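REQUEST ID: PR-0412
SUBMITTED BY: lab tech R.K.
PRIORITY: routine
TASK: structure prediction, single protein chain
INPUT:
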Amino acid sequence: MRFKKPIFWDIKKPNILCYFLYPLSLLTLIRNKFKINSIKKYNNIKTICVGNIYVGGTGKTPLTIELNNILKKLNYKTAFIKKYYKDQLDEQKMLSLNGKLFCEKKRITSINKALADNTDIAIFDDGLQDNTLKYDIAIVCFNLQNWIGNGMLIPAGPLRETLESLIKYDAVFLNGNGEKSENIKTIIKKYNLNLKIFEANYVLINSNNLDSNSNYFVFSGIGNPKTFKRTLENNKFNIIKFLEFPDHYNYTDNDIIKIKTEAQKLNAKILTTEKDFMRLNKSNAENINFFKIKLNIDNENELINFLKSKL
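STATUS: complete
OUTPUT:
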């Protein structure tokens, strides 16, 4: 879904608009309560789902890639599974560059293809709310900067499910840029004392190719552009303008012309995310740099032991 988050979703104290939309949020709550499950569990393949209950920008795709790297080092044959959406070709490209991807309109079709390919472990990018599958490991991602926003369900807030849903899951990842997390951990444990909590930080892995002393015009159309901006600031990049677009935005030729014209006036180099860069055609991408970001997982050995215990 291509959208730009309403500002009030991340205001910690709900405003009048949140309460105006609250009756519609009750419909989300009712739908979740009475969702009919037709769960299928696969015995010949292990499954890990990386998803979220906060809509967009929680780091699930970078975490999916990191889990794949870890599991390959443990000599498992892995594959990514992502439900096909026409407006998510950027994430599909990123996954396919880092491993084998099965991407169909129905996740069950993809997992059957992974089974036929003798895959040991299928890693799902998104799909926690898919009531047709039961995963061996279900992981919820949160962004430390936004946490749960105003704490309300869609459309009054950014949550697909309430925090009570954490009782269903196996682990939580708190992804960010070194923000304090103790209070969030305390809240999480109130809902599921047995939930494993891991933390990870965003790291720029191609920063040596870029001059941090230059001025940069930065644009981004991702779920949480503010985290990308903070990552750049933490790495001392001089941002003179930061332009936000909706998540999964398809840039037109006119958009890029305007960006390049304004950057030239500001005497600035142009910078975006890898995910945004995937949406540019070859001619538009000229003279535009991108940052490649990965998640650096704290205490990776603990995560490895957790994965081994579940798989």
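NOTES: The longest strand covers residues 196-204.
REVIEWED BY: pending
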